[in-house]
Fold each of these.
Amino acid sequence: MSQTVFRPITPEILIASKPFTRFGFLPWGGRSTFIFLPSNELFIVVSTPLDERTRTSLHEFAGTEWESKVAYLLAPDDEHTLYTKEWKKAFPSAQVIASKTTNLPDIDIHNLSTIKIQLFGQLVTHELAVLHVPSKTLIEADLLFNLPAKEQYSKGKAGWFGSLIAKGIHVDGWAHKFIVSGGAGKGPAAIQTGKDASVVASWDFTRIIPCHGEVIEKDGKTAWNKAYGALQAASNEKKTA
């Protein structure tokens, strides 16, 4: 029985949430996001497998001919490529969007007026932040976490020890700032990450759909600035120095 939960966020956005355990004990959760573009194409931020439950849900969401509409497959960072390859094999005509350091083809993005993408090239995982402009929704993988992953484990079971630790991995939690600052590094790399974060902060969004943890339905910009405010401020000071 599939443990994946599907939920429409807006008429144009569907999410697929499932259990995923990190380090063998931490209930991290996994999530793909499916976006129906005005061009009648599907833009997919891939982080879950293409199974029969997914096919059925996309049939319900995007219509009987949904397979012919799969146009873009985005790997949100270097660590989220396994399922992207699976989807690409099933839909060979779809264009893959990934950072230049993956072994997936890197492409230019044309005619996607409803989508913005920002690369965090100085991070080890080379994150891609995605904005769906009409719904003011930011989609990201390992830039911001909002654990515990309640929706992603609604059909699964999480261990008590990992769940206890997960309670601190959100923008107001004790562990999140160490994850962000540690990932950003120091010196020029951290300054560039702050600049990249400032680009995202300049976007108009209220909702954040993370790959790991609960969807932030409102005040997403506030959550982003809590996570990256210090790095953004440091990069701005560097520019004015």
Note: The chain has a mean pLDDT of 88.
Amino acid sequence: MLTLTARQENQAELERQKYLEDLETQKAEAKEEYNKLLNSIEWDKMMRCAVTVHLDPETANGNLEVSQDLAAVCDAGGWCNVTENGKRFERFPFVLAQESFTEGRHYWEVTVDGCHTWDLGVARASAARSGRVVLCPEDGYWAIGHSWDRYEVKDRENVDLGNLESISRVGIFLNLDNNLVSFHDARRKLQVHSVSVAFQEPVYPFFCPWRSREPIRITPVPVAE
């Protein structure tokens, strides 16, 4: 049978353990709040790098339909009567933006809600546009994609991004000052992938809706106050 002193010591030890557990919980909550604040600050900085980009019909594959405002693209349902030129994607349903970047920081968003298959990212100016184009860094493309229920990093062997919640708006941040391209769930303000790359030539925003009749659309980014 425990003595009174032993019971008191046992109670004190339980209280000490409870205090330490509460302290760890408070530390974890404080860290979470700090990370949220840090993420909010970084997100605000990224928003200040927002740019307006427009689709370039001269690069659009003949199976694509580009909207008149040059903001949306979808499968055209058949081959369109397009003029051949060296800028146009010959075989796959890809299109670039009119704007290219060689320095600085640039952020844009694309609404993909309703489109079950898409690829988005950036392409260097010299990336191949004819024949069999592989979306991979070696061939000049840095992109992520979605195919029905799977999100992946585009490469010669695509890399699964795991169990992400459904993304309705994709944010792409091209940070040429720090040699970084990052991809974000813009609605939830979460980064889903980033890659380090040092570009030696102009870089273009890249878009692909594959065979979807539902368009993907470049979406205006709210201006940070």
Note: The chain has a mean pLDDT of 89.
